[in-house]
Design goal:
single chain; seven-stranded mixed β-sheet; alpha/beta; Rossmann fold; cytoplasm; RNA-binding; Pept_tRNA_hydro_sf
Length: 198
């Protein structure tokens, strides 16, 4: 029996200059999920994160946005997981994904980090790849026909039509959250993939 998600970590870079960039898609989704649970973020310096504490069907759910840069995201993820006595399987990481086009989103458990610095650091901090990931497609400069380097691409704002696609993917993620918080991963996955095809 897979335990339900209890800790959600949105990935992004802190500071107003990064707020609207593609690399912050995980933060955007975290903000919406906190709203859905009527939870407010407050700065918890000991965890190097903005933390929102909500409840779902009587159970505590923690949503966090690290205040460190992306490549140090594990500091918040590891600290929160240990403090709340959770296992990696109860952790969900929300992050931007170059290998998926804007508007596409995939849920997966485990696997590598595919060069994503935030995932790499979290995997090291949790000493396990067994956490869940919601991969929000932002596209790749090559598949989008851009000459930009990846580093510059992720730190730029998406074009208006890409943003619309990313926002619709975020809405689909919000719709499967109750299933994830109940531990119904099979249902969440099929619901998400149905929506991807729609």
């Amino acid at each position: 029996m897979t335990p339900p998600i209890r800790l959600v970590i949105g990935l992004g870079n802190p500071g107003p200059e990064y707020e609207a960039t593609r690399h912050n898609a995980g933060f955007w989704l975290a903000d919406h999920l906190a709203d859905d649970l009527k939870a407010d973020f407050s700065l918890e310096k000991s965890f190097s994160a903005w933390v929102a504490k909500g409840r779902f069907e009587g159970e505590a759910v923690i949503i966090a946005k690290p205040t460190t840069f992306m490549n140090r995201s594990g500091q918040a993820a590891g600290g929160l997981m240990r403090f709340y006595k959770l296992v990696p399987e109860q952790v969900l990481v929300l992050h931007d994904e170059l290998d998926l086009m804007p508007g596409n989103v995939k849920l997966k458990q485990g696997g590598g980090h595919a060069g994503h610095n935030g995932l790499r650091d979290i995997q090291a901090a949790l000493a396990s790849p067994a956490f869940w990931r919601l991969r929000l497609g932002i596209g790749h400069p090559r598949t989008l026909g851009l000459a930009q380097q990846v580093a510059a691409f992720v730190l730029n704002m998406p074009k208006r039509d890409e943003l619309k696609d990313i926002e619709s993917a975020i809405d689909r993620c919000r719709a499967i959250m109750p299933a994830l918080l109940r531990g119904e991963f099979q249902q969440a996955t099929s619901q998400l993939h149905e929506a991807n095809r729609a």
